[in-house]
């Protein structure tokens, strides 16, 4: 959702980095462009003023203008101020230490995604915190709202309060409290009714439910696509209900990002979660620093590694690692990797989370290369026989025509896939000659991949089995390799390092 803002800021900072020295006027000119970019992104005017004043004051200091890399220093200041604007260094989670059942009350306008977010949150609490939840729908106004939550409850395997026709929201809240105690639930999630706009009746109902249930958390669910309206809604609720946090939905949409950047300053409440898709696992904790770094094109490798840890099955990784160690890599292995990329959100999601991949993402869009490419590749491999997948060398012209017809593609696409597999297989063999990924890590300066072991211990994935460990001191040295014998992609990677 921050693509336009990210592009505008990227252009400003590219110009700053390109200069050996900066004058005060250079900084002020750059800040003028940053101000326009933020206003175009629909960030609230008071927030923009405060942000620009803070950055300008720090950026025109002598330690910046006289530093060796003034452009980089300005980018760092902007990054730090963005983190501050989004909520600071601390990632504020839910308060779950209270006496059970911990009541979480979901509030917001109609259509903001409250019911779906309630189910996503229940799934998140079960999988990440091991909490047993009970969900209750207090929405008696919207047709089938209670039935919708019951269906979502079955999908996420979380209990829902049985529906009693004609019962009013406050009575449902009381019954939910009793039922949660009887079922020994850790958390009770109350999905309240919404309105098309903030009105007195809605606020009176929220207050009555709050007094009956005494919630530990009151989360406001707002649609980030509504821009500054989302901030105004948040302000209205803050004045009436004791909010503890905000959940921004549709953060994967094409909104301009102003709601996310203004929310903390206007409401004083932290953004605790972000909805990033329609699926029931598309809910992420909101990390201000990670979001700021993505806006500035620095990527979000930590989130990428966490996503990989969740989606990549350990036994599959172990099997692939063993095959790589032997220099084996067939089309079944390639297919598994393509499916893992799809599970992690596809090419667009991965490109957006890797540092410096902004231009690559634009090139992919220009070449009309999207996630359908992964689906087509999977279809091509799926149209092959088991023997052909294990031995791609069998693929002659006749077989290629049959596979192209079976997958709904053409022979050219089949050839591209086979060439890609060939290049990857060649790279695997070269890595094996270097002593496996451990040797490659030593050759690259002892880094290794994030989450696959590296300096300072393994990352969030704890090091996948068989995929090497920390390089650096004591790491095995790779044997001498003639760079000219390496595949082009691997040679480029080594040259960059």
Topology diagram in text:
Layout: H1 3-17, H2 24-40, H3 45-59, H4 62-65, H5 70-86, E1 102-107, H6 114-129, E2 133-137, H7 145-156, E3 159-160, H8 169-182, E4 187-191, H9 200-213, E5 217-223, H10 228-240, E6 245-249, H11 258-267, E7 271-275, E8 283-285, H12 288-295, H13 301-311, H14 314-325, H15 331-343, H16 346-353, H17 358-366, H18 372-382, H19 386-390, H20 397-407, H21 411-433, H22 436-443, H23 488-496
Parallel strand pairs: 1-4, 1-5, 2-3, 2-4, 5-6, 6-7
Antiparallel strand pairs: 7-8
Give a short overview.
This protein has about 500 residues and is α/β, with parallel strands linked by helices.
| Sheet with the most strands: spatial strand order | 3-2-4-1-5-6-7-8
Mean pLDDT: 76
Low-confidence stretches: 443-482
Net shape:
flat
Helix content: 55-70%
CATH homologous superfamily of the largest domain - what is it?
Answer: P-loop containing nucleotide triphosphate hydrolases
What is the makeup of the main sheet?
A: 8 strands, mixed
Structural class: alpha/beta
How many structural domains can be distinguished in the coordinates?
Answer: 3
CATH class of the largest domain: Alpha Beta
């Amino acid at each position: 959702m921050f693509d336009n803002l990210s592009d505008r800021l990227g252009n400003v900072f590219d110009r700053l980095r390109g200069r050996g020295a900066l004058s005060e006027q250079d900084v002020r000119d750059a800040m003028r462009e940053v101000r326009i970019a933020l206003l175009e992104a629909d960030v609230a005017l008071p927030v923009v003023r405060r942000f620009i004043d803070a950055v300008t004051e720090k950026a025109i200091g002598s330690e910046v203008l006289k530093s060796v890399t003034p452009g980089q220093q300005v980018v760092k200041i902007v990054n730090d101020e963005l983190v501050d604007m989004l909520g600071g260094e601390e990632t504020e989670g839910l308060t779950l230490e209270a006496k059970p059942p911990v009541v979480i009350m979901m509030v917001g306008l109609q259509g903001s995604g409250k019911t779906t977010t309630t189910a996503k949150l229940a799934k998140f609490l079960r999988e990440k915190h091991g909490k047993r939840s009970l969900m209750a729908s207090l929405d008696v106004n919207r047709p089938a709202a209670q039935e919708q939550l019951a269906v979502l409850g079955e999908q996420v395997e979380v209990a829902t309060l049985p529906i009693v026709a004609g019962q009013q929201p406050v009575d449902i809240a009381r019954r939910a409290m009793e039922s949660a105690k009887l079922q020994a639930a850790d958390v009770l999630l109350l999905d309240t009714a919404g309105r098309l706009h903030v009105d007195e009746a809605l606020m009176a109902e929220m207050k009555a439910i709050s007094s009956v249930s005494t919630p530990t958390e009151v989360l406001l669910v707002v649609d980030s696509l509504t821009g500054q309206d989302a901030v105004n809604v948040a302000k209205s609720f803050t004045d009436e209900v004791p909010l503890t946090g905000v959940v921004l939905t549709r953060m994967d949409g094409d909104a301009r990002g102003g709601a996310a950047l203004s929310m903390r300053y206007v409401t004083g409440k932290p953004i605790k979660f972000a909805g990033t898709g329609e699926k029931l696992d598309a809910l992420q904790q909101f990390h201000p620093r990670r979001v700021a770094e993505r806006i500035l094109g620095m990527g979000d490798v930590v989130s990428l590694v966490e996503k990989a840890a969740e989606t990549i099955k350990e036994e599959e990784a172990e099997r692939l690692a063993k095959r790589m160690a032997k220099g084996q890599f067939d089309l079944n292995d390639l297919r598994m990797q393509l499916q893992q990329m799809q599970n992690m959100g596809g090419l667009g999601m991965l490109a957006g989370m890797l540092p410096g991949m902004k231009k690559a993402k634009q090139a992919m869009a220009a070449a009309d290369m999207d996630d359908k490419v992964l689906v087509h590749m999977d279809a091509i491999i799926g149209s092959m026989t088991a023997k052909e997948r294990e031995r791609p060398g069998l693929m002659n012209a006749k077989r290629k025509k049959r596979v192209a017809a079976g997958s709904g593609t053409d022979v050219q696409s089949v050839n591209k896939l086979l060439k890609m597999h060939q290049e990857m297989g060649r790279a695997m063999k070269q890595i094996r000659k270097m002593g496996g990924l451990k040797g490659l890590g030593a050759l690259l300066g002892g880094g290794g991949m994030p989450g696959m072991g590296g300096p300072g211990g393994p990352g969030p994935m704890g090091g996948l089995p068989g995929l090497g460990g920390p390089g650096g001191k004591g790491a095995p040295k790779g044997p001498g390799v003639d760079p000219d014998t390496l595949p082009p992609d691997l040679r480029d990677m080594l040259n960059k390092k």
